[in-house]
Structures are given as structure tokens and as C-alpha cells.
Design goal:
two-stranded parallel ribbon, disordered N terminus, mainly alpha, 402 residues, disordered C terminus, two-stranded antiparallel sheet
């Protein structure tokens, strides 16, 4: 990830990083997520309003959390270790974007075959155990920010050799952990919550896991460049259309897979059984466009020459004040696309591939914004990819050290 260019000692930038800045929209989004979840337990919220409001708040929070990637990239660059940029941040490559629809298709069809020829309950149990393990980490990472910064911590740094082949896993395994009593208690609480979810499979618990997956995924993943993002979105545009309109595979898997890969919205009670009926939105319809929106928000920060806060104050960047034309236009486009999806679904009473509407909305709004501002070349030249020459220099330095 290329460190952002910064200017210093200007009045405009001082205002951007003023410690008194508060992003009230960010706090409102946090509060709205909680209020919608709590409110949906006690009353029926019109599911269209519920869906649109919750998704918009999730995207706003997650994309602003992704601004921390700029701080982590700069810190990694100063240390010369570009391979560890962001402490686990994933940056998509162009070849991965081309392959993503194919890999997704293989995975989706495999699930379809599993549900068709294997015991449905057993398949859901195995998938549920996996998602509970991953969900435990996601819940912990989401709520760990509420723990106080100044707390006693313990450090474990060890190296373990193993007899397994190196092509399976590198040897030795390096363990570098730092944690406190609060971390232990929070992780235990996350594990207990996931255990209850696995047992009860209640829709409200499913939504907590789904929201945590969205927040953590969008905030820790970079598309690298606008071009790579466009390749990914266009590929998944055709992927979604084919598997929803061309086959029964997508709808079958969505209805049978009982796991936190979707967010559920109560829409009423069945007249004959009195059972709660639920509408759903797949996490992919939030997370994939979310990657794109987060990239545009960081591009806004780059264009505004937002100064770096430093790793010690990296969380303050979420409250920094700077123009966000690309992010706001793409978020508005996304909401229009999602509302269109719901409208068509309700009118025709049939499942719709959301990316059919979301991809043109996100790409079209961002390109229109760039055209109006005369920044088309800047948008396509912006990159968060690790430069090959920097990587080669770093690898050469490591080899000499070893």
C-alpha cells in the first residue's frame, strides 16, 4: 500500500486534524445500528426502511474505519516492511479480481450439491461450526475498541518448529501476542455468544454476527486500485445475474444455508401459521460494494491531502473533517441501487440479483463525480498496491539479514 502524500503546517490541514473534531454522523450510525437491532426485537419495523437504514449505517461506519489503513500503511513504510502493511490488511490483485467470480461459482455450486445430495442438517452443522469460530474473532475485533487503552497487558512471543512440510505451513511458527484481562473476558464472552448462536440459530443473533463480519471485512480489505475494483464488480455483476436468473442454485443455497452469511429482516407473521416471516440480504451485497466505497473514501482523503495522525492516534482519523465527494456520491448511488432492487423484487415477487442494480449505481456515480470534478486520471492513477520495486528491495534486505 503506497503511503499517502501529505502537506504540513497549513491552516486547512490543521482544521482537518483538530482534536476537537467529532464526526456526528459516525456516532449517529453507531447508535442507529444498535437502535434498529433493539427496536426490531420489540416491534415490527417496516422491513424496507429497516434494511435501507441498517445497511447505510453499516457502510458508513465500516468505510470510516477503513481510513485507519492509511495510518498503518505509512507506519509499515517507515519500518520498511511492506509485506506486513496494516498488520494483516489484505490487498486484492488484478489476477485475483479476474478469478473471483470463478472461485465464487465453484464454491456456490459445491454448496448446492452438498444440500442436494447430503444431509441438510449435517451440512448446516459443519458450516455453522466454521462460522462460529470465525464469528468469535469478528465479534471480539468489533467490540475490543470499547476496552480502555491503558490496561495491563501480557506479551507472548515464541517460535515453534514443527515436522510438517514447508509447502503446507512455514516452520517455525511465530507467535506474537499481546493481551490483557479485558481481552480474555471479551474473547470468552464472544465464544459464549457464538456457542448460543450455534445452539439457537435465532435471527437476531445471526444479525449480530453478520454486522460484525461486514464491519471487519470492509475495514481490513483494500481493492488496491479503482481499476481492480471495477474488474471485481463487473465480474460479480455477471456472476450474480447468471446464478439467480439462469439457475436455481443461488436461491436454493440462500434458503437452505442456515448461517450468518446474510442479514435477516422481519416483515410480518404468516396468516396460516403465525410464524415470523423474514426477508434477507446476503452479506456479499453489502461487503463487495463496501470494499469499493471504502476505497473511494480513502481516495477522498488522498485528494484532500489529509495528514497522517500517527499510529498512536490512528483512530482519530475517522473523525477528521475533509471533503468526501466520491464517497458520498457512491453511497447515494448504492442506496438508490438497493432501493431499486427492493422495488423490483416487491413488484415482481421474485428474488433479484442485487449486484445487477448495485454495480452500475456504484460505478456510474463514481465516474460521474470524477467527470464533473475533472479528476478522471487521478481516480485511475490512485493506488494502494505495494510497489514491486519496494517489495524487491525489502525482500533483498531480508535475505541479507538472514
Amino acid at each position: 500500500m503506497t503511503p499517502p502524500t501529505t502537506k504540513s503546517n497549513t491552516e486547512e490541514q490543521t482544521k482537518m486534524v483538530d482534536g476537537g473534531n467529532v464526526n456526528y454522523m459516525l456516532w449517529l450510525s453507531y447508535a442507529s445500528i444498535v437502535a434498529l437491532w433493539v427496536g426490531s426485537q420489540v416491534t415490527l419495523i417496516p422491513y424496507v426502511i429497516h434494511l435501507l437504514a441498517l445497511v447505510m449505517c453499516i457502510l458508513y461506519v465500516a468505510c470510516h474505519h477503513s481510513l485507519v489503513l492509511r495510518e498503518e500503511a505509512a507506519a509499515a513504510a517507515e519500518g520498511g516492511d511492506y509485506s506486513q502493511a496494516g498488520g494483516g490488511v489484505e490487498i486484492l490483485k488484478a489476477e485475483d479480481a479476474y478469478q473471483f467470480p470463478l472461485i465464487g461459482s465453484v464454491s456456490l455450486f459445491s454448496l448446492y450439491l452438498a444440500f442436494k445430495f447430503l444431509d441438510k442438517d449435517m451440512v448446516n452443522l459443519l458450516i455453522g461450526v466454521y462460522f462460529c469460530a470465525v464469528g468469535c474473532a469478528a465479534v471480539f475485533a468489533t467490540f475490543v475498541v470499547v476496552l480502555p487503552d491503558k490496561r495491563q497487558k501480557f506479551k507472548i512471543k515464541k517460535s515453534y518448529a514443527h515436522p510438517l512440510p514447508s509447502f503446507l505451513i512455514e516452520s517455525p511458527i511465530e507467535i506474537d501476542l499481546e493481551f490483557g484481562f479485558g481481552d480474555i473476558l471479551l474473547f470468552a464472552a464472544s465464544a459464549i455468544f457464538c456457542g448460543f448462536y450455534l445452539r439457537m440459530k435465532h435471527w437476531s443473533m445471526n444479525n449480530i454476527l453478520g454486522i460484525c463480519f461486514c464491519l471487519q471485512g470492509i475495514s481490513r480489505f483494500s481493492l488496491g486500485t479503482y481499476k481492480i475494483g471495477a474488474i471485481l464488480l463487473v465480474g460479480l455483476f455477471f456472476y450474480d445475474i447468471f446464478w439467480v436468473f439462469g439457475t436455481e442454485v443461488m436461491v436454493t443455497v440462500a434458503k437452505n444455508l442456515d448461517g450468518p452469511i446474510k442479514i435477516l429482516f422481519p416483515r410480518g407473521y404468516a396468516a396460516d401459521t403465525g410464524k415470523l416471516e423474514l426477508s434477507l440480504l446476503g452479506l456479499g451485497d453489502i461487503v463487495i460494494p463496501g470494499f469499493f466505497l471504502a476505497l473511494l473514501l480513502r481516495f477522498d482523503a488522498h485528494q484532500a491531502q489529509l495528514p497522517l495522525f500517527g499510529m498512536e492516534k490512528r483512530m482519530d482519523v475517522m473523525h477528521a473533517s475533509f471533503p468526501k465527494p466520491y464517497f458520498h456520491s457512491a453511497l447515494l448511488g448504492y442506496m438508490v441501487g438497493l432501493a431499486t432492487t427492493l422495488y423490483v423484487m416487491i413488484v415482481f415477487k421474485a428474488a433479484q440479483p442485487a449486484l445487477l442494480y448495485l454495480v452500475p449505481a456504484c460505478l456510474g456515480s463514481s465516474l460521474l463525480c470524477a467527470a464533473v470534478k475533472g479528476e478522471m486520471s487521478d481516480l485511475f492513477q490512485y493506488s494502494e498496491e505495494e510497489k514491486e520495486e519496494e517489495k524487491a528491495t525489502t525482500d533483498a534486505g531480508k535475505d541479507k539479514t538472514e
